[in-house]
Design brief:
- It contains 18 helices and 25 strands.
- It is an alpha+beta fold.
- A six-stranded mixed β-sheet has the order 4-5-7-9-11-10.
- The longest helix is centred in the C-terminal third of the chain and has 29 residues.
- The protein starts with a helix and ends with a helix.
Length: 645
């Protein structure tokens, strides 16, 4: 005996609620592991303060996402060689950080991924020919592209070990020594080992052992003047055990990264600040935008400027520094108020002609060169001790080129400015969590609609049908027809449970891809980008196909067949619906081609969610216009009776 419909609805609602609670508890519950010790607040002396001497100052450079390529953009490598020779010669940094994606590692069709040895050889040739490693400390680390299709760190395909300047895999701690103190640079290596083909290593991952190692490196740096963390992935794209990567780096002045490029030009600046004061500074890519960054510590005040290749002169005001990028927890900001001079770094291939300074649109004078790129101008900081002020520095060289830098500063440490909401969300949100929640909600809602309309009583049709009634009726028809009900129920459940495909996740190494993660060679990588792929699958195929079949079945019940509905239904309604579904269907077909090119023939044929679903889609669409079962006949009679009345 079947249970009553109200009871079935209560059971379905209870299952949905239980699933949601379980998901939220799992994703947001804190770890039961040991919590790290809090860092003691740093106390700074008011001296030495920035003055007229060229002391207590050093600068360094960051560049990211080189994507040295065999197949694309022939100017990318020559430009980078020019950067290593001319730009580095002009700036003369103490060290250079190259934060990942040294090579492109994509196949000629730009779809597949593999380590291309000639790209690594090109990169190494540039380093050797430019002799850049003799001019500065060159620290290059891996990005996700440098880890594509690598079965293990000992593999011959791990060309990073052979061709990079640093050679060593994993996180590490480098100390830069100066006469006025030492400065720690900690690399957080979150690349996946083994490294799947694209796109399933877009998110970085750190396990408990790696987090313990990073915490140990952080403890080693506590007696340094400053600590800079750097890595390829922004913290928002790193999956790490609770309490998370941001807590581990809470003693750092800044975290430098790349990976997101400029989001296709939508976000040319991606900067924010963690709750404990650490700056997170994503740098735009060299690949398409030729970006690089110069950073400086001047009397332990941290400053930086994001720059474009071959745009001269380069200007960096080190004191007074911008309030937006200030942190009293990590810097001796009181030294600005004790300073005697405004300090500016100016670089150009041509001699600097003049450096002019104004504050609040009042001209203060021309800064004088002290030594090398350092220019200073005497000032009285007490005159600006209240409120916000804007400093403008214009540098012109002998070739006539000029650059102006301006920023807002304040002397009071309690004053602060906020970063943009979008950039903060992109860098501070744990994206792997919200995409999991969104995926779960979409799946639960789709299943709930199927179950609810399956067991709701058949609607009575009286009078003209409104849009809402038509939508409700079409869902009733689909859910109460066994073929379509079980097809979409199984499709949705399979999208969650998988496997989506089985094949060589890494060449020569079998694995399987699920919504909740990737299994390869005995390793499991928990779901991240897989959930985003699942969202696309549900949003742009599963749900549209369900809506399309609802529409087709509703037309059937109105007495239409496939050959006649274009004449009985307004064409400007019917044709766009068919075209939209056709486009989404061809997107599904293209995803099969992408799978073939990326993971090979076996993955193509062993892919229920990609290849098999193409054939099943054609079958269910065909059946929606041809089947004639009792459920469908009942609705057809009901519709005819309603139309005649």
């Amino acid at each position: 005996m079947l249970p009553s419909r109200p009871r079935m609805l209560r059971v379905a609602a209870g299952l949905v609620a239980a699933a949601l609670v379980a998901l939220l508890l799992d994703w947001f519950s804190p770890s039961s592991g040991p919590q790290p010790q809090l860092v003691q607040a740093r106390s700074w002396a008011s001296a030495p303060a920035p003055g007229a001497e060229a002391d207590n100052l050093f600068w360094f450079v960051q560049v990211s996402d080189l994507h040295v390529s065999k197949f694309r953009d022939p100017s990318r490598s020559p430009d980078f060689e020019k950067f290593c020779t001319e730009t580095i010669d002009i700036i003369q940094p103490a060290l250079v950080l190259v934060t990942g994606d040294l090579t492109d590692a994509k196949t000629k069709d730009n779809i597949g991924s593999d380590q291309v040895e000639v790209e690594w050889q090109t990169y190494q040739t540039i380093l050797k020919r430019s002799k850049v490693m003799e001019k500065t400390k060159w620290i290059d680390i891996k990005g996700n592209h440098d880890s594509f299709n690598i079965p293990s760190l000992d593999s011959v395909k791990n060309y990073y070990r052979k061709y990079s300047a640093w050679h060593k895999d994993g996180s590490f701690h480098y100390i830069h020594h100066t006469p006025f103190g030492k400065y720690s640079f900690i690399c957080a290596d979150a690349t996946l080992v083994p490294g799947p083909k694209r796109p399933y290593n877009f998110f970085g991952m750190l396990n408990a052992r790696q987090m313990e190692e990073l915490s140990s490196l952080a403890a080693e740096s506590y007696d340094s003047n400053h600590t800079i963390w750097f890595g390829h992935y922004p913290t928002s794209t790193i999956i790490s055990p609770s309490p998370g990567i941001r807590v581990a780096m809470r003693s750092a002045t800044a975290y430098l990264c790349g990976h997101l490029h400029t989001l296709g030009g939508l976000m040319p600046v991606l900067h924010t600040q963690h709750d404990h004061g650490t700056l997170e500074l994503e740098l735009g890519d060299w690949k398409d935008n030729r970006k690089f960054r110069i950073l400086a510590f001047d009397h332990d005040l941290f400053s930086f400027a994001d720059l474009n290749f071959e745009e001269w002169p380069v200007v960096l005001v080190t004191s007074p520094k911008p309030t937006l990028y200030s942190s009293s927890a990590h810097e001796p900001l009181q030294r600005i108020l004790q300073s005697t001079h405004i300090r500016i770094l100016a670089f150009s291939p041509s001699p600097i002609k003049f450096v002019t300074v104004s504050i609040d649109d009042i001209h203060l004078g021309e800064a004088l060169q002290v030594s090398g790129p350092l220019y200073v101008l005497k000032w009285s900081p007490q005159s600006y001790s209240q409120g916000f002020h804007e400093i403008n520095v214009t540098v012109q060289d002998s070739s006539g080129k000029s650059t102006t830098q301006h920023h807002t500063f304040a002397m009071e440490e309690t004053f602060s400015l906020k970063f943009g909401l979008l950039s903060s969300w992109l860098l501070l949100a744990d994206h792997y969590i919200w995409i999991r929640v969104l995926f779960a909600l979409m799946v639960i809602i789709q299943i709930a609609f199927l179950i609810i309309f399956r067991y709701l009583g058949r609607p009575s049709l009286k009078g003209p049908l409104t849009r809402t009634m038509q939508t409700s009726l079409s869902l009733h028809i689909l859910s109460k027809t066994n073929l379509f009900y079980y097809f979409f129920l199984l499709l949705t459940l399979y999208t969650v449970l998988g496997p989506w495909f089985i094949g060589e996740i890494i060449d020569g190494h079998m694995g399987a891809c699920f919504s909740f993660g990737v299994v390869v060679d005995g390793h499991f990588f928990q779901g991240s980008i897989t959930f985003l792929v699942g969202i696309w699958q549900v949003m742009f195929f599963n749900i549209p196909l369900m809506a399309y079949l609802c529409w087709c079945l509703f037309l059937r019940c109105q007495g239409n067949c496939f050959g006649s509905h274009l004449y009985n239904v307004k064409r400007y309604h019917a044709v766009p619906v068919h075209l939209t579904m056709a486009l989404l269907f061809f997107w599904q077909v293209y995803s099969c081609f992408f799978l073939l090119q990326t993971y090979g023939t076996m993955a193509f044929f062993l892919s229920p969610l990609r290849t098999w679903i193409v054939g099943l889609t054609l079958f269910v669409v065909y059946r929606s216009w041809t089947m004639n079962n009792s459920t469908l006949r009942t609705f057809i009679v009901q519709m005819k009776n309603n139309q005649s009345s």
